[in-house]
Design goal:
By secondary structure, this protein is α+β, with helices and mostly antiparallel strands. The chain contains 17 helices and 18 strands. The strands form four sheets. Strands 1, 2, 3, 4, 5 and 6 form a six-stranded antiparallel sheet that branches.
Length: about 625
């Protein structure tokens, strides 16, 4: 009886192992199916969202162009009145000629133009078209468009939509208009004085353009607001005016052009923002998240059916596979576990061809692993050192030739003081560049190198731009990779301010933030689009129009080789606003020990640096 029990137990054990393997495979298969189903659903959902957002952006770009054309026509009318009528005429003797020219301009644009009016600095009407009687004492000087023009004389000012209330209309109709006002110089009896030119455009042009795109029935809509969040057009403008509904236009006015996630009044939605030139107006597209789920029901059923079919197929396959691989895999796994426990037995070689091959591979791998580990550590350090040296060797002060030519011209032109200054700055720059072969220097030395470089460039560019350094002195004694500011400053000159005339500004700042050193180079130059910013640090094959060709990719790579991928460069830029390139490096006190650790090419460990710093402080005490 005892023997029979043992035999039955032996017969049950293999069967239980196979069932375990099958159950395990089934769980894994079901998990994979669920993950694949969820991934497929979210991928399709994400693709659908992306398609909706992209189509919305294209539609908004076209609409923004139409709005800009509309506003440009207002500017052109205003410029024509100012430069061809007002500046060339004397109001005291050429009143009829002025009226005639304004009439011709009005007749040519009367489909969109509501009125043109010229006021002096006391708010008195000098000329208007079409000819109409002004309402009794409208007190023009208190009108918003008049006050804006007088307060900011150098700008043109676009108003929000309002009812024209300056002139009597014989038809007793009221017109919604958008006003463009600007300060002009008026001549009367040969004497110049300031006045205000007012151009009123028919608001129906904007309303018509916006109605053409507000045709969606899935909750998506578009509106326009000014830089302060005041609504210019909204499909539910009447309800907003009556307080029935509201819009998050004030926050939308602060957004730059792009796509944002927003939660307003408990509803999640995508916000697509497009800035309209000249005015600061924002064209805003609102896409509720319910829009994205519209039409995804059929996709859910398809994915569910696909998962059911895959589940039935996997159940059969798992049964067959579990029987064939369970026993040899268990034996192989047992021998591997013993090896990992330190016993180092012979790895099991048996079962199917694949299992035997796997056993042989594991055996060979374990035999090689000890020697390879030591070799890998050595090669890793050497590789990092070689990469750093290779990148460092690319730093070629290409401007040396131009600088030497400039010095030659100065000497030939007997401008000896300027030549001496250029030579001294060049010597100082190369002294820091060489740094006795060191890669790690202090922040102070890096700033001195940057100042010398900018002094030379200011002479070469004849002081067409200014430079300001504002760095916390407490950062001077921190470690940094040398020659990281020069390529950034070079880009700021060549791509930012070189084409500007006497108004370029470059600012170098330094601050401490969360245990890191942040050095930033800002300029007020032409800036870059979002697409160009994305390529600056990712596309190392870009063709450089100016400079050494080293670029920001080199600087970013050198920083990350020494300190890790969590450090490096970040770029913020806006077209026509300027660019800011920020350098983030760990705050490491400059000591000889820290410098040697970094220059060995070892992976940076902040704890190791802090440990050594604490030991050095104790030694000094």
């Amino acid at each position: 009886m005892k023997n029979k029990y043992v035999i039955n137990l032996k017969k049950l054990k293999p069967r239980g192992m196979q069932s375990t393997v099958m159950i395990a495979f089934s769980v894994i298969s079901v998990s994979i199916m669920l993950i694949l189903g969820v991934v497929m659903y979210f991928r399709f959902s994400a693709a659908s969202r992306q398609e909706v957002v992209q189509s919305t952006q294209k539609l908004m770009e076209q609409t923004a162009e139409n709005l800009e054309d509309y506003l440009v026509s207002m500017r052109q009318i205003s410029d024509t009145v100012y430069y061809n009528v007002i500046k060339e005429s004397d109001f005291s003797s050429q009143e009829q000629d002025i009226q005639t020219k304004m009439n011709l301009l009005y007749e040519a644009n009367k489909d969109n133009l509501r009125s043109i009016a010229i006021y002096n600095n006391y708010g008195s009407l000098l000329a208007a078209e079409p000819v109409a009687s002004q309402k009794e004492d409208p007190n023009v000087t208190r009108q918003g468009w008049y006050q804006q023009a007088m307060e900011e004389m150098e700008n043109m000012h676009f108003s929000t939509p309002h009812i024209q209330n300056l002139f009597d209309d014989s038809t007793m109709r009221y017109y919604w208009v958008i006003s463009l006002s600007r300060v002009v110089e008026i001549t009367q009896d040969g004497v110049s004085q300031l006045g205000v030119l007012l151009v009123d455009m028919d608001y129906t042009g904007i309303s018509r353009m916006m109605k053409q795109i507000n045709t969606f029935d899935n909750g998506q809509y578009f509106y326009v607001c000014d830089g302060n969040g005041e609504i210019i057009y909204h499909p539910r403008q009447i309800q907003i005016s009556d307080g029935i509904t509201s819009e998050n236009s004030i926050e939308a006015a602060t957004y730059k052009a792009g796509v944002y996630d927003e939660k307003f009044e408990g509803e999640r939605r995508k916000i697509v923002v497009n800035t309209i030139s000249y005015t600061g107006w924002k064209l805003v597209g609102v896409i509720p998240y319910s829009t994205f789920t519209h039409g995804m029901v059929n996709m859910r059923y398809f994915i569910l059916l696909l998962m059911c079919l895959m589940g039935m197929m996997l159940a059969v396959i798992n049964r067959l596979v579990s029987v064939s691989i369970s026993r040899p895999i268990l034996k192989l796994n047992h021998s591997v576990l013993e090896y990992e426990a330190g016993k180092k037995p012979e790895i099991y070689i048996g079962g199917s061809l694949e299992i035997r091959h796997l056993g042989n591979s594991i055996q060979r791998s374990y035999e090689q692993i000890d020697s390879l580990m030591k070799k890998i550590v050595l090669e890793q350090n050497e590789r990092r050192k070689s990469e750093l040296d290779a990148l460092q060797s690319q730093i070629n002060p290409h401007f040396l030739y131009n600088t030497l030519e400039s010095i030659t011209w100065m000497v030939e032109g007997e401008r000896n003081d300027e030549a001496v200054f250029m030579i001294s700055q060049l010597a100082r720059l190369f002294r820091i560049s060489l740094s006795q072969g060191r890669t790690i220097i202090t922040v102070k030395e890096e700033l001195q190198h940057a100042e010398s470089y900018m002094n030379i460039q200011k002479v070469r560019y004849k002081n067409t731009f200014s430079v300001e350094f504002d760095v916390d002195p407490s950062l001077y004694s921190c470690c940094t990779v040398k020659l990281i500011l020069q390529p950034i400053l070079e880009n700021a000159i060549n791509y930012g301010v070189s084409s500007m005339e006497d108004c370029g500004e470059i600012r170098v700042t330094g601050r401490r933030e969360d245990g890191n050193v942040i050095l930033a180079v800002s300029d007020n130059g032409i800036g870059m689009s979002e697409e160009e910013v994305d390529l600056v640090l990712t596309d190392s094959n870009r063709i450089h129009k100016h400079g050494s060709g080293v670029g920001l990719v080199n600087v970013n790579n050198r920083i990350q080789i020494l300190f890790g991928t969590e450090y490096g460069l970040s770029i913020e830029s806006e077209p026509d606003e300027g660019t800011t390139v920020s350098i983030c490096i760990p705050e490491i006190p400059y000591t000889e020990e820290n410098r040697k650790i970094l220059e060995r090419g070892s992976i940076f460990r902040k704890e190791e640096m802090e440990d050594k710093g604490m030991r050095e402080n104790r030694d000094e005490e």
